[in-house]
Amino acid sequence: MGTPHVVSVNIVHALIPGAKGTNLTAIDKRPQRGRIAVTELGLAGDCHQYRRHGGPDQALYLYAREDADWWAQQLGRQIPPGYFGENLDSIGLDVSGALIGERWRIGAGPDAVEVEIRSPRTPCRNFAFRMAEPGWARRFAEARRPGAYLKVLRTGTVGAGDPIAVSFRPEHDVTLGHCILDPDPERMARLLDCHIDLRPAMRELAERVSGRCPAG
């Protein structure tokens, strides 16, 4: 797949109408030149309009160019960097095969950023509205190419061309692609047994699917 690296760094270009017509969405993200600061809440200059987006567990959204190119073929249209609302486009990474809790180092030197995979993307109405494709939310989920929501463990800067290296892989087998639709109970139990820090929604999913819901 080649040396994994960042293809583009994307921040909001303009707020545009969302699915309800009157609400605005920050999904229109476009590539930036130079280096962009990365904080615990994401890229400097970016924003989120929807209350369920953003926050430390969704500080960055990364999508693989290989998957974007696959969608371009499926849809017969161009999918330029940032079009899915992603902050980072990568190449050379098996993003859908990455593990929940896996960590990546992006960049090199003292300003390198460290991130942790927290969860796959669940397509929302604004995403479906932007794509204007019949049954888009279901189609996107069924393709098992969800991209990765990332938590920033170490702040720094990021720019196009930065190398991406896996710095930690937890001892379970729950990938982003696996947990998007019909996760296996035994695998989700192994995720819990790994005792890594999990996003609350991911822990709830693992407990429910594995049958380990806490008493209450």
Give a quick rundown of the structure.
The chain has 216 residues and is α+β, with helices and mostly antiparallel strands. It has helices at 65-75, 125-131, 136-142, 185-193, 200-210; strands spanning 5-12, 16-17, 24-25, 29-31, 36-39, 42-43, 60-64, 88-91, 103-106, 113-120, 148-154, 156-158, 164-168.
How would you sum up this structure, described in words?
There is one protein chain. The chain has 216 residues and is an alpha+beta fold. It has a single domain (5-172), classed as Beta Barrel (M1 Pyruvate Kinase, Domain 3). The chain has helices at 65-75, 125-131, 136-142, 185-193, 200-210; strands at 5-12, 16-17, 24-25, 29-31, 36-39, 42-43, 60-64, 88-91, 103-106, 113-120, 148-154, 156-158, 164-168. The strands form three sheets. Strands 4-1-8-7-11-10-9-13 form an eight-stranded mixed beta sheet. It has a three-stranded antiparallel beta sheet with strand order 6-5-12, with no helix packed on it. Strands 2-3 form a two-stranded antiparallel ribbon. β9 (103-106) and β10 form a beta hairpin. The longest helix has 11 residues, at 65-75. The model has no long low-confidence stretch (mean pLDDT 93).
Helix residue percentage: 10-25%
For this entry, what is the oligomeric state of its chains?
single chain
Q: Estimate nothing, just give the exact number of structural domains.
A: 1
Q: What spatial form do the alpha-carbon principal axes imply?
A: globular
Distance between the termini: 47 Å
Beta-strand fraction estimate: 25-35%
SSE order: EEEEEEEHEEEHHEEEHH
> The biggest beta sheet, please?
8 strands, mixed
SS-based class: alpha+beta
Q: What's the average pLDDT?
A: 93
